[in-house]
Amino acid sequence: MNGGTTILWFAAMTLALLAASLGGFERRQRRYRGWPWWMTALWLAAAGAALAAAVPAAYRVSELLLLQWPIVTLVGLRRFDSRLGLPLNERSDWAVLAAAGLLAASHPLWPADGVTGALVPDMAALLVHLYAAALFFCGPPGRDAFPLNLLGLTMAMVALAPLPAGWIGHDPIASIGLRTIATALGAVVMAFVAITLASERTERQLRESQRRLRALANIDALTQVPNRRHFHELADLALRADAPGSATLLMFDVDHFKRINDALGHAAGDRVLRLVSGSILDSLRPHDVAGRHGGDEFVLLLRHTGIDDAMGVAGRIVGRLQLQAEGVALPPLSLSFGIVQLLPGEAVDDALRRADQALYEAKRQGRSCAVAARGDEDQPVFSESQRLGLTAC
């Protein structure tokens, strides 16, 4: 066994080991589209290197087996993540590979003693490698850009590696030996890029799953507004950022909500709650904070707002609810509001207790109205109720 054959066997073993490693990595991870194409590209390249080492006379078949590596790798990348937005498409990839294969297969038709004929297989390899390299360099910006550019640079270097053997002595065996070694080295980079892309995708999916879990933990599934716990978190953050005493708190509920549930069923009650939450979201500014406090009770923190403006917000919510309720098979709806201006240094829980007192007073005064409470919790001073647009049930 001469040195060239030993190198070919070593390259074949390297390619086979990389293919097996990718297969083992895939079995430990979720199955990604495109991964089988990368393994196929490596196994075929390993077969080409082994064939060149075992049967040197079959070097033309070895050339074809090595020729597929950049294109099949490219196809695998397209299937791995179609959102990468690589130029052209798979049909173009296969067309380039077919053209290069025909060019390489035409080698016997060229004059045996000509430089052009000796360089035909190298030109075919140059075509597919530079085509793949160009597309990798044209990949998307961002986190995926570096591994794709690295793979593109590797493809370009692999394309140029066997050319000296074609220019000096026109030895096809030496040329395929250089190409095999270059392919094996390039495959190491390819395996690194494949694992990097898979790991980054797994990380992105994990972050998205965590984001969804946080949303499930923080957002009320029925009404799509923050739940009680998350409202307290957001309200505390807002109060720490704003001037003391600059926010207004509203607590309100649906009048006679139990009657709606008992008469029409829980599905109708859920529909009412969704209508209310939709009216809230349509009426608030981006920096205001809303939350479902429990049952049919909602709370709002209006930043940089006084009681008079908060009364106007309550009226807008009722007006939007009236518009959204038109055409829905529900009885007339009404809301009752309790409103307080937060005192300097007052905690959210303390303000909520005062707002609850004001809400109770609104119920006592006949519902379908808003009542503001001034003063402290022990000696509240209630304003005259302000009637809102909807008729009480």
TL;DR?
Helix content is 64%, strand content 9%. It is an alpha+beta fold.
Largest sheet: 7 strands, mixed
Q: Find the structural class using helix and strand composition.
A: alpha+beta
Provide mean pLDDT, rounded.
87
- The CATH architecture assignment of the largest domain turns out to be Up-down Bundle
Q: Number of helix segments?
A: 14
Strand content: 5-15%
What does this structure look like?
- With 393 residues, this protein is an alpha+beta fold.
- Strands 1, 2, 3, 4, 5, 6 and 7 form a seven-stranded mixed beta sheet that branches.
- The longest helix has 47 residues.
- The chain starts with a helix and ends in a 6-residue tail after the last strand.
- The mean pLDDT is 87.
SSE inventory with pairings:
Blueprint: H1 3-28, H2 35-54, H3 59-67, H4 69-80, H5 90-105, H6 115-137, H7 145-160, H8 163-167, H9 172-218, H10 228-241, E1 248-254, H11 257-264, H12 266-283, E2 289-294, E3 297-302, H13 307-325, E4 335-341, H14 348-364, E5 369-374, E6 381-382, E7 386-387
Parallel strand pairs: 4-5
Antiparallel strand pairs: 1-3, 1-4, 2-3, 5-6, 5-7
